[in-house]
Task: inverse folding
């Protein structure tokens, strides 16, 4: 008798568990759609005709496909130029970031480095205190970096947090190797570039990619410091078209087409959204590969 | 006393000497640290010094030090607190920060717990990969999407119509701001935020599950008694750290979501600083307002860190 009850109970559990599994599979499919749908919708709308957009009929797929949004965007905005600007800014700030961070992080792995304590405290302070927008703005003015890319590349190149993560990563490398190299007469610069950097490929891949994506995605510094249209990064072009009233109206041909009803303003705006995120989505598989490692690296406490 | 002094005289010069000697011996290290030190000094410390202008009548020609002190020194602060809008701005800052915390903190935990229960490795991995994508999308793109989705013909209004509600322009006025702001923050952060919990869950002792199975525990019981206790310490720390930074919301996002119809209603302290300082050029005043915000933020971080240290010294920041 007891055995039978036990058997039944077990069955019941399995039954409930099954339902839960199926529910979960459906729920997660729904959640995935919520993550992806906005992108699908943006692509679809950017490609659909004004008639379909303005009657709210575009959802998952484009309807009555037109390419005018993209055509006009590339005709009337210097998208390729903005791409080039952004690539230069991202590459520059990433290189500065990796070089400076590696240098100081390496020195902090020496327990008997005389400046170790001083530098650690000085860096910690910057994690909690900052001058804020306006004093930095005044500084950039004083340094005559207004309207130059230096203003976007230098101020945030060195972050205390990154330094501490690098340091803890370097600490994972056996110091015996370093001692051996020292005995062979290698300089610290040689040890860093010849031993530490090659052994920290995962670290550099992760932080390099993150730095590139962060720079690609940021607009605020450019909003503050870049006044010349030709120097603007891609995010600022998007901002101009979507959020600044004069941005879209400066595109006279597009404006005319929108006025005639030949296309919707969302065609141009969303075309620009796609142009802005496409490079990041192309990088995404690489990011995907490395950020799991990156999170582990970041979790190590210095 | 005399002896002490003599001892100091004897030791001090020698130790200073040895400091410089050692510094010279470690000159390679100094050289390696130098680029970062220069950048940190110029771009982190000089602006901190620049905060002085919140007590001065800043004049660009005279520089930070040469400008006249204000009389009284805290004039800018009293001006801010006397401003009719200041209370609303402070309240807005709290409101946006708290709402964001309320929704962006629990959602990654729930998502991680559910993902952990999901059967099928491939499916789980796919859902995870998809959930991270929004994290890498820029704030300008997010806001552009919100702008389009909230327009009369946008996606949000399609949903409203489907639910039998009238179409409205969600971008004008401030009625829908908070939902758009918080909703998009959840959408953007839930997958990425769950990584840390999933990492904790992957380290759980599997024998616990075997024991639970023998005891006949159901799924819910396993979640409550095994999975949740595993991630609870992590969750506590993340909650406390989030509370510490609750006022440091992403004001660049609010800056984009503001337009002529809602600017004053959406202002938080940081956007107010941008408006007054950069747009209107009131450098001293806006620096003072920002200093007030920094002080409150620092107090929050500091006190939350004290709490962590009491609860769990391992995880405190310092």
Result:
């Amino acid at each position: 008798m007891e055995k039978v009850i036990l058997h039944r109970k077990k069955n019941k559990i399995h039954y409930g568990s099954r339902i839960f599994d199926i529910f979960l599979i459906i729920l997660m499919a729904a959640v995935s759609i919520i993550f992806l749908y906005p992108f699908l919708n943006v692509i679809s709308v950017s490609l659909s005709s004004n008639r379909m957009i303005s009657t709210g009929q575009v959802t998952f797929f484009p309807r009555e496909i037109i390419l005018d949004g993209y055509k006009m965007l590339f005709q009337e905005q210097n998208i390729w130029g903005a791409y080039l600007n952004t690539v230069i800014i991202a590459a520059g700030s990433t290189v500065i970031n990796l070089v400076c961070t590696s240098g100081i992080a390496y020195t902090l792995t020496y327990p008997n480095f005389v400046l170790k304590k001083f530098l650690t405290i000085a860096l910690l302070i910057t994690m909690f205190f900052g001058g804020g927008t306006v004093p930095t703005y005044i500084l950039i003015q004083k340094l005559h970096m207004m309207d130059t890319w230096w203003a976007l590349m230098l101020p945030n190149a060195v972050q205390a947090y990154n330094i501490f993560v690098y340091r803890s990563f370097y600490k994972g490398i056996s110091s015996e190797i370093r001692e051996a190299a020292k005995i062979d007469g290698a300089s610290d610069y040689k040890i860093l570039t010849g031993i530490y950097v090659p052994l920290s490929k995962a670290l550099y891949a992760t932080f390099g990619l993150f730095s590139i994506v962060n720079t690609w995605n940021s607009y605020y510094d450019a909003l503050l410091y870049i006044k010349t249209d030709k120097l603007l990064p891609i995010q600022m072009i998007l901002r101009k078209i979507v959020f600044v009233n004069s941005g879209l109206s400066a595109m006279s041909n597009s404006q005319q087409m929108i006025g005639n009803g030949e296309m919707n303003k969302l065609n141009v705006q969303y075309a620009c959204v796609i142009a802005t995120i496409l490079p990041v989505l192309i990088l995404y598989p690489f990011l995907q590969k490395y950020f799991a490692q990156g999170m582990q690296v970041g979790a190590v406490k210095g | 006393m005399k002896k002490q002094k003599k001892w100091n005289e004897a030791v001090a010069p020698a130790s200073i000497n040895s400091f410089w000697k050692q510094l010279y011996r470690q000159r390679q290290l100094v050289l390696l640290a130098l680029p970062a030190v220069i950048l940190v000094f110029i771009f982190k410390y000089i602006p901190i010094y620049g905060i002085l202008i919140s007590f001065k009548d800043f004049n660009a020609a005279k520089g930070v030090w040469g400008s006249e002190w204000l009389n009284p020194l805290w004039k800018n602060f009293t001006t801010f607190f006397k401003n009719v809008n200041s209370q609303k701005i402070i309240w807005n800052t709290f409101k946006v920060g708290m709402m964001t915390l309320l929704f962006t903190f629990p959602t990654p935990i729930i998502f991680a717990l559910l993902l952990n229960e999901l059967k099928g490795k491939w499916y789980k991995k796919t859902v995870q990969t998809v959930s991270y994508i929004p994290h890498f999308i820029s704030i300008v793109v997010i806001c552009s999407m919100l702008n389009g989705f909230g327009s009369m013909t946008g996606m949000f209004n399609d949903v409203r119509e489907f639910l039998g509600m009238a179409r409205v322009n969600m971008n004008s006025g401030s009625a829908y701001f908070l939902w758009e702001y918080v909703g998009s923050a959840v959408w953007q952060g839930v997958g990425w935020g769950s990584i840390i919990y999933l990492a904790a869950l992957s380290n759980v002792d599997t024998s616990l599950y075997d024991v639970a199975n023998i005891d006949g525990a159901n799924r819910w019981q396993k979640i409550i008694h095994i999975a949740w206790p595993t991630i609870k310490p992590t969750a506590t720390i993340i909650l406390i750290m989030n509370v510490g930074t609750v006022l440091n919301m992403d004001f660049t996002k609010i800056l984009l979501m503001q337009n002529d119809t809602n600017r004053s209603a959406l202002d938080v302290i940081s956007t107010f600083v941008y408006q007054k300082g950069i747009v209107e050029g009131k450098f001293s005043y806006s620096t003072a307002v920002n200093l007030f915000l920094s002080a409150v933020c620092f107090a929050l971080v500091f006190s939350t860190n004290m709490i962590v240290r009491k609860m769990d010294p391992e995880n405190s920041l310092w």
